[in-house]
Write a structure and sequence with these properties.
The complex is a heterodimer. By secondary structure, chain A is α+β, with helices and mostly antiparallel strands. Chain A contains seven helices and four strands, in the order H-E-E-H-H-H-H-H-H-E-E. In chain B, the strands form two sheets. Chain B has a six-stranded antiparallel beta sheet, with helices on both faces. A two-stranded antiparallel ribbon of chain B has the order 1-2. Classes of the chains: A alpha+beta, B alpha+beta.
Chain lengths: 155, 338
């Protein structure tokens, strides 16, 4: 690939491509990601649609929060089971809202570690109708406890 | 080991970039393409399995083989260790860093929170170098980050001890011996021979050129495996990500391999390798057309049978080109003396 064909102006996502330079040599070149620049909006739109669709399923009692996060993070039941260190059949049961209540607190904490979400977010959705609201979950040494800080205005 | 400052450089791929950087710090100046080529890293494999949420493909050898094969072919020795207990893994890392030894670690990419959100997925084969402890975190030299980054202790622990496929189990490594003289002729040709063999001689239907052909045929069946059109679009566009963006240096490592062959040609004074480097660069250009086409039809949701058939034909043409290229490369590696 020629150097000029590889050049993409996109600072948010930089990468290295190996290209043919003007003098005919092959060398690494730092540039922007073409797909991120051209298609990132499409990626986030699809992601938002997927989250919305599965959140509705959770609300209607057709899917559990475990199923929601598993789909969004593109994990399979076997991969998730291996990460949470429980049998696959248990993960499949936890994906069913009927059996979600059987989950132990310790298992839920391990799921949260994999999904990188606060424990309480497995049981609720946070929405706001105001702009400029900054919501942040703050961890503490106690894995079963956290602080939700909501800041409006200012820096 | 010296305690000289660690020089961070971006690289195309995390494992070859990490090995190259940690060796450079230890005094062995070896480029990323040379690490990749000597290790025989170029590959193709198409996978449909319950382990993956959707059919996928890989364009490089098994994670960990780059370091292991490079060590075997050059005589470089790495000390490596895995840990059952996260606390002992963390203690050992801290001990090494306190001695001024930069340490390469295997991690789950998902927890590298200094990188953009859209690239972070659960994959346990991301390699980074930890260069020092800072406060309650670590300074990280990550091939995909433009500069050194800070990663908090909790995220690194999760990343090093994530479960799942290729679980890192705290794996770390660093060089302990670099030979004074390395027979690069032998190392280069052994790397070339093993890569070419894997691409055209392995009797497995889903790897090498056979894997590319399988991919070209199976893509027509993807609509039946997708949840809906948006899911199919996402998976088709991921072809572009896997070939171009996910640490390949472009065209599924084909551009990096061309650079390796060019560098090896100059190092060994071998004009045959120069010719081969031009051929694989050209093959890479056509792979890039595949990935751009996939991105465009995915964005337009233009994913009917005819369009996917067209994509399959483009991929099949890559199989033809690579079959010829790697057969010639294998023949060449058999003729050379090393």
């Amino acid at each position: 690939m020629k150097e000029k064909e590889a050049r993409v102006d996109y600072r948010e996502h930089q990468l290295i491509l190996y290209v043919e330079k003007k003098d005919g040599t092959y060398a690494p070149m730092r540039t922007g990601s073409y797909i991120a620049k051209e298609y990132i909006d499409d990626f986030w739109k699809k992601r938002a649609n997927l989250e919305r669709e599965y959140m509705e399923k959770v609300k209607r009692g057709e899917a559990s929060p475990i199923a929601f996060h598993m789909i969004v993070e593109e994990l399979t039941p076997s991969e998730l089971a291996s990460r949470v260190r429980i049998p696959v059949r248990k993960v499949k049961r936890h994906c069913d809202p009927v059996h979600f209540g059987e989950i132990t607190l310790e298992e839920l904490v391990r799921y949260c570690e994999v999904f990188n979400v606060p424990l309480i977010n497995m049981l609720r959705q946070i929405v706001s109708n105001k702009t400029g609201v900054r919501i942040k979950d703050e961890k503490c040494a106690n894995p079963f406890f956290g602080t939700l800080s909501i800041r409006v205005g200012g820096k | 080991m010296s305690s000289k400052p660690f020089e961070h450089r971006m690289a195309a791929h995390c494992e070859s970039g990490t090995v190259s950087a940690i060796l450079r710090h230890a005094g062995m100046d070896i480029s990323e393409p040379m690490v990749f080529g000597i290790s025989g890293g170029i590959f193709f494999g198409y996978f449909e399995s319950k382990k993956f949420p959707f059919p996928t493909f890989v364009v490089r050898s098994r994670p960990g083989r780059i370091r292991a094969n490079l060590a075997r072919r050059t005589g470089v020795k790495f000390r490596s260790e895995r840990f059952r207990d996260p606390s002992s893994g963390e203690r050992e890392l801290d001990r090494l860093l306190s001695l001024g030894v930069p340490v390469a670690c295997q991690t789950d990419f998902f927890y590298m929170n200094y990188l953009p959100d859209h690239v972070r997925v659960h994959i346990n084969v991301h390699f980074v170098i930890l260069t020092e402890i800072e406060g309650d975190g670590y300074i990280v030299s990550d091939s995909y980050s433009p500069g050194l980054a800070l990663l908090d202790r909790d995220s690194l622990r999760k990343a090093r001890f994530a479960g799942g496929s290729f679980a890192p189990r705290g794996f770390l490594f660093y060089p302990v011996f670099i030979p004074e003289r390395i027979d690069f002729r032998k190392a280069v040709w052994k790397g070339i021979k093993s890569a070419a063999f894997q691409m055209v001689r392995l009797p497995v239907p889903f790897v090498g050129v056979k894997g590319i052909r399988l991919f070209s045929k199976r893509i027509a069946a993807w609509p039946a495996l997708a949840r809906d059109t948006e899911h199919l679009s996402h998976e088709v566009m991921k072809i572009n990500v896997l070939l171009e963006d996910q640490g390949t240096g472009g065209a599924g490592f084909r551009f990096m391999y061309a650079t390796f062959l060019r560098e090896a040609s100059a190092m060994l004074g071998d004009s045959d390798l120069r010719g081969m480097s031009e051929r694989i660069m050209e093959i890479g250009d056509r792979w890039r057309e595949v990935s751009l086409f996939a991105a465009r039809i995915g964005k337009r949701r233009d994913l009917d049978r005819a369009r996917l058939g067209e994509l399959g034909s483009m991929i099949n043409a890559r199989a033809d080109a690579e079959e010829s290229f790697f057969n010639d490369l294998l023949d060449l590696s058999k003729k050379k003396k090393y």
